[in-house]
Design brief:
mainly alpha, Monooxygenase, elongated
Amino acid sequence: MSEIFAGISAYFANLTTAESIWLGIGFFGQGLFFSRWLVQWIASERKAESQIPVAFWHMSLAGSLIVLAYAIHRHDPVFIIGQGTGTLVYLRNLMLIYRKRTARD
């Protein structure tokens, strides 16, 4: 684990000004991408049920974990933070779906 953090620290230490700007742009874009999930998540929480088909959440979770693994390999903080937090939303929606199904049965 310390190797991952050392790689991330080295990544930030060696950035040029242009790369720092692009990193900021990347975080901004990832924030916008995550915001759409946050809005959907809040809507689901208010109704206590997912408003999207289950397959969507399974595919989102699988895709997120794959991209997260890639981001960790690349030591890319934009994708590590974005995919790491997105995974929580996908898991929570699956929990809501299965909790509702269990209560119904």
